[in-house]
Design brief:
The structure holds 2 protein chains of 2 kinds.
Chain A: E1 3-5, E2 10-14, E3 19-21, E4 24-26, E5 32-38, E6 44-50, E7 56-58, E8 64-68, E9 73-78, E10 87-94, E11 102-103, E12 107-112
Parallel strand pairs in A: 2-12
Antiparallel strand pairs in A: 1-4, 3-9, 5-6, 5-10, 7-8, 8-9, 10-11, 10-12
Chain B: E1 5-7, E2 10-13, E3 19-24, E4 31-38, E5 42-50, E6 53-56, E7 65-71, E8 74-79, E9 88-95, E10 104-105, E11 109-113
Parallel strand pairs in B: 2-11
Antiparallel strand pairs in B: 1-3, 3-8, 4-5, 4-9, 5-6, 7-8, 9-10, 9-11
Classes of the chains: A mainly beta, B mainly beta.
């Protein structure tokens, strides 16, 4: 079975500050890991994905995440927060890109001017 | 710009009524997923199809939910009869058959059952 834990249901940062959203996973098979972003009243948009290639993954909008097998983590970071980054962020795990995703509960990011 | 489309975007109905939600996957994608999002449960899988065949529908209440793919360009999710606890946002996602493929999500159908 696979599962995802996102630490912190709500994270608040100042504009220009570092964004760090935490994700830990549990998987009995080598995982594929994803970060999605959801803006209000919209669907989920892929930010980035790890599919067993490079452990440091760069995504859209300046986000990146690092796969750390020893820590079973896939934390999402961005060096400098922008107001437009305010949204809900979901980490997800699966065993293959075309099998169902198991999502974490989500982290709501607020950016303060 | 290929995208997954879902109709209707919003649906308000009364308890006991039938609800049908439709999804048009991205052309060429052979895997279709239905997810439900609620405040309490978060995002959870209801069912998924590959090449129009159902692979897993264990997340659906079998007595009231049904999912089908009449053809490669249409997936449907039906609830009959609907109940207030079915109020949620229902997302369709589609993806290819490659192991590194990405699931692309539609905008969702927000269902309210009164």
């Amino acid at each position: 079975a696979q599962s995802v834990t996102q630490l912190g249901s709500h994270v608040s940062v100042s504009e220009g500050a570092l964004v760090l959203l935490r994700c830990n996973y549990s998987s009995s098979v080598p995982p594929y890991l994803f970060w999605y972003v959801q803006y209000p009243n919209q669907g989920l948009q892929l930010l980035l994905k790890y599919t067993s290639a490079a452990t440091l993954v760069k995504g859209i909008n300046g986000f990146e995440a690092e796969f750390k097998k020893s820590e079973t983590s896939f934390h999402l970071t961005k060096p400098s927060a922008h107001m437009s980054d305010a949204a809900e962020y979901f980490c997800a795990v699966t065993q293959s890109g075309n099998t169902p995703l198991v999502f974490g509960k989500g982290t709501r990011l607020s950016v303060i001017a | 710009d290929a995208r997954v489309t879902q109709t209707p975007r919003h649906k308000v109905t009364e308890m006991g009524q039938e609800v049908t939600m439709r999804c048009q996957p991205i052309l060429g994608h052979n895997t279709v997923f239905w997810y439900r999002q609620t405040m309490m449960q978060g995002l959870e899988l209801l069912a998924y199809f590959r090449n129009r065949a159902p692979l897993d529908d264990s997340g659906m209440p079998k007595d009231r939910f049904s999912a089908e793919m009449p053809d490669a360009t249409l997936a449907t999710l039906k609830i009959q009869p609907s109940e207030p606890r079915d109020s949620a946002v229902y997302f369709c996602a589609s993806g290819g058959q490659g192991s590194t493929d990405t699931q692309y999500f539609g905008p969702g159908t927000r269902l309210t059952v009164l």
